[in-house]
Amino acid sequence: MTPEELIAAARAAARHAHAPYSRFAVGAAVLLTDGSVVTGANVENASYGLSLCAETVAIATTASQGRLADVVAIGVVGGPMDGGGETPVSPCGRCRQVLNEAAQLGGRDLPIYCAGLTGDALAEHRLSALLPHAFGPADLGFGAV
Which residues pair with 28 in a beta bridge? Predict the structure, then answer.
């Protein structure tokens, strides 16, 4: 799967965002070792702290399928629901940590493809660059879980 196809899947997921407060939709698409894709969209809550990021939704869905160690890449898109949104967005700090768990379990430095809700701009990062000195299972004395 190309980065552009992964971004297209993330954009499709963003259409299902529940973002009535921020009006900022985010979609994520997680690529697995067998070529399948798991998606997620952000879900806001009136109690703001209970909101879920698209990346976390996608990773939690992947984990519920027993596939957390199979993550090989992720595409993330976001932008205002009312138009615009061509600037690539990247995962927040919490999501970077959630992605790190999958990356360490799979023994991979995940590529993260970032884009806006619209437009052709595409940024590629490695998780290790977005989350240097990451904390993970080995720091708890468990090694790779």
Answer: 40, 76
